[in-house]
Design brief:
- With 127 residues, this protein is an alpha+beta fold.
- It has one domain.
- 37% of the residues lie in helices and 29% in strands.
- It is built from three helices and eight strands.
- Strands 1-4-5-6-7-8 form a six-stranded mixed sheet, sandwiched between helices.
- A hairpin with a 2-residue loop joins strand 2 and strand 3.
- Helix 1 crosses helix 2.
- The longest helix is centred in the N-terminal third of the chain and has 19 residues.
- It is globular.
- The two termini are 20 Å apart.
Length: 127
């Protein structure tokens, strides 16, 4: 399955979660529900995946964690904030770089329509 096929399934599941829960909950609630929905689809899903930092050829565990990683290809960073800003995008870009992933989804569930809260980040570029 390609990154785009995976991301389409993630976005559909996220929209379903958002329709059922609405905005205003904690990030952890959306993370658990999205993890559940993706797992139900038979996808390989890892929650809170540790993301080590490599510095001068030394692997350091600094406590970074990807919210959800799907099929070891697409990372999901979940937010529940008034508005996404540059630091949120920078976080996804950093995880993409550290994990050598091609695609990340930054999803803010604290919006009226979830489509407005989804940012695709590909190889360091926001779509």
């Amino acid at each position: 399955m390609t990154e785009n096929e995976i991301s389409n399934r993630i976005i559909a599941a996220a929209i379903e979660v958002h329709k059922n829960l609405g905005p205003g909950l904690l990030e952890s609630a959306y993370k658990e529900c999205l993890y559940y929905k993706l797992s139900q689809q038979g996808l390989q899903v890892v929650k809170e995946k540790p993301m080590p930092l490599i510095f001068e050829n030394v692997k350091l565990d600094c406590g970074y964690r990807i919210d959800i990683l799907v099929e070891n290809k697409v990372l999901i960073e979940i937010k529940s904030v008034d508005a996404l800003n540059d630091i949120h995008l920078a976080q996804v870009l950093t995880y993409l770089k550290l994990g050598n992933f091609k695609l990340g989804l930054l999803i803010n569930f604290n919006v009226v329509s979830l489509k407005a809260g989804i940012k695709r980040v590909v190889n360091g570029l926001q779509e």
